[in-house]
């Protein structure tokens, strides 16, 4: 009997995550997963059922090509399966997309046109989409947008203090990690409906990091703005920076935009401060002052952003930690808590050490949770809804 599956590609700056979902019942249930880590020696780790495998792949010199995608799908999708759809995470929907969409010549052209807003991030996903169109032309493809969740924000949250003509041309704050926030918000509503319906700050902390202030699950404000460089410091990105610094760098050692872009994406953040690593776990195990400074700066800036978002949403009823750092690193959560004691946040020591779902102490006036994110599940759910809405079979 043929099994109906959907395949999801989640292209990020550091890796390509793949999810395989059984959709025969009309509901997306995960049955496989894989992660392709970029770098000098690309590795693909994948799991179907209980079996975990790891293989080396050819060096990805010119991007993610057809051979790589064919190899990935061959290992994740069995011969007795029929691919019902392929869904993709697209980082930037600009002003054109505030929800998922089928991919066709028209929408592809629009997405490609938005690449100028996120050239590095958008290109990864477009390469995968092109490869799928070449390998499996009949398969329906859909796009889910990281920016769409933040389309609910008012003009005060999206406005930069620049001329109106530039704002109307698309130079504004967009926000990212929207698929993660959508998943976490839905989980919180199921876990604690009263709290999920209140004022919540979600901290998506990983190599890429941002925070979102929500009221009743709706995005009100977020830390990332026009690009994924904005907000809090990240592994190798600086977060918010005085524009005067950029002018200074352009007039000195980083004399053109390409050099400056490479610097901002790869040589700043925790790596820049520590001088050795952007990995918080490695920094926590490093006793040099520079490593400690990087961790302290990260916690300080994240806590400061929570304070800023509290203004946007009118207070904070709950804080949710998600992402690789948010879900798994008690020391980072404790470091953030130290700056928010005045706000009434108090973590239970035992719960924090074990990364329990509920983190807050009994006397805390702010609830605190760890909720694992699952962007691929959101993409799969949105793909199914899009296919049904547009009448694909």
Describe this structure in words.
- With 393 residues, this protein is of the alpha/beta class.
- The protein folds into 2 domains: 3-145, ATPase, nucleotide binding domain (Nucleotidyltransferase, domain 5); 193-370, ATPase, nucleotide binding domain (Nucleotidyltransferase, domain 5, 2-Layer Sandwich).
- Helices cover 39% and strands 21% of the residues.
- It has 16 helices and 13 strands.
- The protein has helices at 66-76, 105-113, 119-135, 155-158, 164-168, 178-191, 193-196, 243-250, 257-266, 269-274, 280-284, 289-313, 323-328, 330-338, 349-353, 375-390; strands spanning 3-11, 15-22, 29-37, 43-48, 51-56, 81-90, 101-102, 140-145, 199-204, 210-215, 218-222, 318-322, 367-370.
- The strands form 2 sheets. It has an 8-stranded mixed sheet, sandwiched between helices. Strands 11-10-9-12-13 form a 5-stranded mixed sheet, with helices on both faces.
- The longest helix has 25 residues, at 289-313.
- It is globular and about 60 Å long.
- It starts with a strand and ends with a helix.
